[in-house]
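[09:14] KT: can someone run the structure on this one? pasting the chain below
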Amino acid sequence: MMHRWIAVAVLCLCLAGCFAAGWGRLVHSNRLMDLYRDGNLAGNHAYYYCGREGLPYAVVGIDPSYTFTGRFWFRIESREELYRKIGHLSNLEPWHTAMHAKEIISASGRVVGTWFSYYNTTSIEIDEAARKVNVHNPYKPETRFPLGG
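[09:31] RB: done, C-alpha cells below
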C-alpha cells in the first residue's frame, strides 16, 4: 500500500515538471511591422538571429524579463545590425515569400518577444516559472527550401 502512494507522489511530481514548460505561438502583428518600418522596435529587448549572416532565417527579440535559451542563434549587438538583419529578410527577391512579423505569445497569453522571418512558423518552448524562452531554428534541412527552390 505504501508503494502505491510513493508511485502516485512520483507521478504527480513528474507531471508537474511537464506542465512547468509550455509551448508558445506566433501571432501576426501589423503593429510590429509598422514599428520596424518606423525604426521603433523595442530597445530593451535582446535580439538574436539564426542562419547566415547576410541572409538570416529569422530574427527574434526577447523581453528582458526572460532568458533566451535557443541554440544556434547569434546575439545582435547593435540597433544598426538589428535593422540590417531584418532588412535582409524584407529585401528578398520577388520570387521569395514575404517576411512575417509576429509576436511570440506564451501559453498564458503574455507577449514575450518578436519574430521576423520569411518562415511562417517554428516551435517555441516557454517556461514561464523559470522565465526562459527557447525558439527553435525554423530551417529544417530535411525539407525543401521554402522559398521556391
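[09:33] KT: thanks! The beta strands are 21-23, 25-28, 46-51, 56-62, 67-68, 74-75, 100-105, 111-117, 124-127, 132-135.
[09:34] RB: yep, looked fine to me
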